[in-house]
């Protein structure tokens, strides 16, 4: 059999825990290894022979039928910059069955970058401060951008792997948004039951917990490294200083933080990319939108400096998230994020508190441009064509710089 679920996360985003939770489901089976790293296929290899080799990593269809496995998962980390640059999304779309779907976990890219550096110091004997590690990655990203083949691709990956919007857009374009699912890292552990039930529905398997022998996702212990916890632990500071700046174990200068990451600087690199994520993550199923609007990183880094911030705040007091009365100015902003810096000039949004209000403000032109308004007012996140239509309509009221 071929897998029906590909994990399109970047390293250090929680993919190990996600795969463990998936494999706790009695109808889901994995490959002979967690990360096959099969995609993209080398352009010099025959695709048909490559797929035979790929298929051999999973159980046969006969075994799957006997065991009751309805889905196979490949935890291959296909959200890596290398996978995207190599054309993995387009290859999967062309060569894999139409039932193939992609699941990815997004973690605060600053925290993810720090975790990569900590792992390199602790396990790979890296002897560079976090600042030098960042400088090298930044320089490599600049050198590799626009190149089909780049000798410094591996060096760029720690930073480039956190540019999530590129990963999401390419997978969405290749498979269609309905075949991709992007999850917040925090919810994977804090709201595991809810996340895994959503994933089960997406994967087309029965809900978790229906069989007596089926582990509930909340009983699956988090797996993977605790790099960020180690980084924050004051007791670990001597180890890191000794590893990367040569401080001795007898050095009591615990205030020497020259080895640490400048988190604000790393955050500034990701800021323009994060700003493009809102439309990609919120034009989705309401259960998924609920998770994103409750995620601290999304509200602080993605929705900050926009009216989406108020939307995030409102979700903390509401269990019915993203109803029409919460999606006026916020929706306008998230739809226009992808156009760049937007300055609202001629459209008065002060009295707009819902999508229904927004439509009424521009209804005459809306009806001429888009026709029927039901798709917008009844649930925009389930009607992508209507969302596009509204975005095009509202863009006539703004100046894009």
Automatic annotation (TrEMBL):
Coiled coil: none
SUPFAM superfamilies to which the protein is assigned, alphabetical: P-loop containing nucleoside triphosphate hydrolases
Highest rank taxon of the organism: Eukaryota
Gene3D superfamilies the UniProt entry points to: P-loop containing nucleotide triphosphate hydrolases
Keywords from the UniProt entry: Transferase
Active site, per annotation: 12
UniProt binding sites for 3'-phosphoadenylyl sulfate: 107, 115
Recorded GO MF terms: sulfotransferase activity
Protein name listed in UniProt: Sulfotransferase
Annotated organism of origin: Chrysophaeum taylorii
